[in-house]
Amino acid sequence: MSDDSTIRATQLRVGRLTKAHGLKGAIKLELFTDDPGRRFVPGAVFTLQVPTSSPWHGKTIELVELRWYNQHAVGFFKGVPDREAAETLAKAILWIDQDSAEQTDEEDAWYDHQLVGLAIVRDGVQIGTLTRLEHLPAQDLLIVKTANGEVMIPFVKAIVPSVDVKAGVITITPPPGLLEELPDEPDADEPAPADADTDSDTDEPVADPETSEEPAATPTPDGQGA
């Protein structure tokens, strides 16, 4: 894959840089934390998750200031002096180092190492085990090892309604076709088979030329035949 997937399990994803804002290097932020006042303080250093082709690959970035414009978070970072530089960071995901023993108190937030190894359960039956997570710009994916190989499950509330770390269970409600192939449906354009009982008995009767009568002559105005 193009994105850096070597982020350590003890790091926490806290935000994503979306697009440049203005001309002085500011970048709009999508926050993945309920506590930006603690995570985004001047001097905070973030590990960047970017494509391997990015000039920022393998680097960290330091926050200078976080501001709010029309209720949108906007960050200023060290080494990002102008809009051109800011645009090279679009879609980068921000991670922070955390103590592996620290437990997050944020709702629906877990460290990767807390989830890896949990049982994946569907309709009360375990179908596999979580081997890793893939963090993409659009959404996170659960990579699950099943009896039929690895499958990818979007880590969204509609499909993953429950995560119980203490019980060691992740409950999923996948839509049809996500984990198995759907049966082929008959082609609506395919003509129906011909009726085997259709034969000449159902055709319109044909008059026998030897027994059929000739049509009567059309009378003329004086009553005589034509």
Oligomer: single chain
Task: Give the N-to-C terminal Cα separation.
Answer: 94 Å
Low-confidence stretches: 1-8
Q: What class do helices, strands and sheet pairing give?
A: mainly beta
Proportion in helices: under 10%
Specify the number of helices: 3
Element string (H = helix, E = strand): EEHEEEHEHEEEEEE
Strand content: 25-35%
The chain-level mean pLDDT equals: 79
Radius of gyration: 35 Å
Major sheet size, sense and barrel closure: 6 strands, antiparallel, barrel
Number of strands: 12
Order of strands across the main sheet: 1-2-5-4-3-6
Shape: elongated
Topology (elements, then pairings):
Elements: E1 11-21, E2 26-31, H1 36-39, E3 45-49, E4 60-69, E5 72-77, H2 83-87, E6 93-97, H3 112-115, E7 119-122, E8 125-135, E9 140-146, E10 149-154, E11 162-164, E12 169-171
Parallel strand pairs: 7-12
Antiparallel strand pairs: 1-2, 1-6, 2-5, 3-4, 3-6, 4-5, 7-8, 8-9, 9-10, 11-12
Walk me through the structure.
It is built from three helices and twelve strands, in the order ββαβββαβαββββββ. It is elongated. The relative contact order is 0.13. Helix content is 6%, strand content 34%. It has a six-stranded antiparallel barrel with strand order 1-2-5-4-3-6. Strands 10-9-8-7-12-11 form a six-stranded mixed β-sheet, with no helix packed on it. The chain has helices at 36-39, 83-87, 112-115; strands at 11-21, 26-31, 45-49, 60-69, 72-77, 93-97, 119-122, 125-135, 140-146, 149-154, 162-164, 169-171. The longest helix has 5 residues, at 83-87. Residues 1-8 have low confidence and may be disordered. By secondary structure, it is mainly beta. Strand 1 (11-21) and strand 2 form a beta hairpin.
